[in-house]
Every structure is written in C-alpha cells, then in structure tokens.
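[Automated response] Your request has been received and processed.

Submitted sequence:
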Amino acid sequence: MLALADPELDNGPRTEKSATMRTCAVSREVRPTGELIRFVVAPSGEVIPDIKRRLPGRGLWVSATRQAVAEAVRRHHFSRGFKRDVRVSPALADETEGLLARSAIDALGIAAKAGQVVSGYAKVEAALSQRASRVAIAALIHAADGAPDGIRKLDALTRPNAGDPSAGGQGQAPPFPIISCLTSAELDLALGRSNVIHAALLAGPASRTFLSRSQTLVRYRSADADKTAGTAARTSKI
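Generated structure:
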C-alpha cells in the first residue's frame, strides 16, 4: 500500500521495503532507489539533482533515465511534487547526465588510488592473460572513442578459454562487464594520465562503487528504462 500523500517524496511507499523503494514522480511506478534519481530544491529555489542522496530537504524521485527527467521538466512535475514555485533549468536532463558521468569518473579515480585499476594496452593484455592464476578482474574498460581494432583484440581475451583453440569459447559472454561509457578524456581525468584508452578494473570495494555508478550512467542514457533497470551487467557491454 502506498502512502496517502506525496508518495514520490522521501517518505516513499508504505511497505516493508520503504527504506529502499520510492515512487517515480513521472511514471508513478515504485522502483528501488538505485533505479531513481533524487532531486531537491536548493536555497535559491532551483531544482538540483542529488546524485549521492545526501542533500538536506525533501526529495522528489524520478526514474534514472534522460527521458524521464526531460519529461518531468516538460510536464512541470517538480512544481507539482514540491507544491511550490521552483526554478527548473531547461537543460536539467543534460546537467544530470553530466553529474552522473562525473560521479563515475570520481569513483574510478578512487579505485585507481586504491590500486584496483591497471591501464594501458600492454598492462591490460597481461592482466587478462594472467587472470586465471593471479588477477581477479572485475571489469574491462574501453574509451568510448577508442580504436575498434584494439578493443576487438582485448575483448577476444575475455572469452572463456581464450588462447586455447581446442576449448572453444567463441560467442560466449565474458565473465565480467565490458564498460565503454566514458571517453578517453574522461578516463584521463579519472586516472591522472593522458591518452588512456584501455583499463582493467580489479576486484575490490572501490571497484564495486564504480561499477554501480557506471551502470546508472548507462541506464540514464538508455531510451527505455525497463530494458535496463534491474538487469545484471556481468555479461554485457555497458
């Protein structure tokens, strides 16, 4: 049963999962908070995304897709949801995407400082070749604008039993995600070096944070939230 008033705000639906479920102000569907973006009203009266869900004040929740945020702007859901006059940027959907990308970049930078990222074609190739015995890889990362040839060669090494012609493995999904949602310039910013095209994400807590944020970014850019929400990315490109 949903709350009688403002179910899309922070009080959420009245269920045993109230702490982790909220109602989208656009679709009116109840979703896990990980599939939604929280918006708050700044002291200036402007609606801003609360990507980390930590800002004070009442929050209004919208499905984490560009389409949903754009519709919330177009149909004045923020004024109705907050029950007051608020200022909403016409470019809020773009601004939200930029913040989501920055959040993923920051998380990758933290993973790198924790020693959970290797970068450069040769180092990534070596990590992929050694993963069965020594290296626990959580994801393979390519720049969105990377050269197709290098991407194809490294992707081939992710297949089960790659390098053993008798074992097959053609067409099988990799055992971890292949991420290509950040550009080379964004990878440079995250890793503090230039011309980063390929990287391998090693297992660890910081890596899990980056994976979660990159999946949110991909979901946001998707035209159809229902095809991505709740879908595990362990065997897909994101």
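Summary generated for your ticket: The first strand starts at residue 21 and ends at 23. The two ends are 35 Å apart (CA to CA).
If you did not submit this request, please reply to this message.
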